[in-house]
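User: Round two. Same drill as before: sequence, then structure, for each protein.

Assistant: Same drill it is. First protein:
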Amino acid sequence: MGFVKFLGTAGARYVVGKQLRYSAGTWIELGGTRLLLDPGPGTLLRCRRSRPPLDPEALDGLILTHKHLDHSTDVNIMLEVMAELGHKGRKGVLVAPRDCLEGEDPVVLRYVRRYPERIEIMEEGRVVGIGAVRVTPVRHRHGDAETYGVMLDSPEGRLGFVVDTRFTPELPERYSDCDLLVLNVVRLKPTPEIDHLSLPEAVEIIRGARPKLAVLTHFGMTMLRAKPRELASKLSGELGLEVIAAEDGMQIGSERWL
């Protein structure tokens, strides 16, 4: 059976900088394909210390949604380790926005690009296949960083990841038909000048998309102070579907969303 494992659930600079929650990425296994989403600070360490351990050399692909440090800091070491430290030639796929690879400050180092077998540029509507999984980017609005959420279609259902973004009215429809919907919820209340989802905005997306299971993650301080687990439990009753708050190291099996 497939699963999603949250190696870290930190969002916003303060929570990441203080490591009040871990800032590692999300490990995803679907149909025998192993993917890593947004390898932020500490991802390699959290893989090695996971129980049971997660072997980065077994990865089939890495997905970067955007280049901000809390999503990309460990991308270079994870690309190298995915390729078994370069001892067996190129291996795996990197999927990333263009500005992670080009421009004045690309986050994927040029010398590391010899490790993956393929590098695929994220573009709206462009589907990328990695093993048993089809990756569909969804354009987000997040400051000056080119940012995409993703939908993953696999034999074990459709998974949606609403990453960092300003709320826009089309998001609920874009993420409809997801069996599992994961949402980055940094703020407890809307803050117009910040391009991150607040809890009420996440609720609007969940209400419109109607997934079988919704998971809140990527918390800033206002969310942590409000106790995400209690908030999620309350939302489950209000929305009539299961909503949970991710914890560091939490693993959710595909039987929860199928």
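Second protein:
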Amino acid sequence: MNYAAQTLLERIQRDGKIDGEIIKVDRFLNHMVDPQLIDLLATDIASRYAEKQLDKVLTAETSGIMLAQAVAGMLGIPFVYAKKKRPLTMGAYYAAASYSFTKQESTTLYVSQEVLGHGERVLFIDDFFAKGSTLKAIEEIIAQARAQLIGTAVIINKSARRDIDSILTLEELQAAG
């Protein structure tokens, strides 16, 4: 286990809670945010993609924004977040539906055609990967833009999928008890 994973695990054990598949991290990741921890996690993820010649980092509003901004900053590229409400100022756009199992609601994600273009190489970032609904919506948006998804990176992967880069998996968290 690398330093970022070990640090995150210790923080979850100290200030969070693991209850089956529910991981409570609102005291340091997704309600109140520890910027030093985000920077550490972002450094780990950015190092995995430093040689991939990316054009953009893309995330969904809201929990992925802090990590996406930090990773994009380290890679020297812009980040875009898919919005949950389409502002009046957004002209042409890409859109796809996503269902949040945590919030028990469906929402539509919107990305302006002005900020995501044909042929761009994109890294998708989020805090958690669970059932894949957000990623599915992001993949639809990337396809609409005729861009290319180069990778998906999350802080915690709660699924059995191994094509999702993560700092920790649910299995690792449960094994650490």
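The chain is about 35% helix and 30% strand.

User: Perfect.
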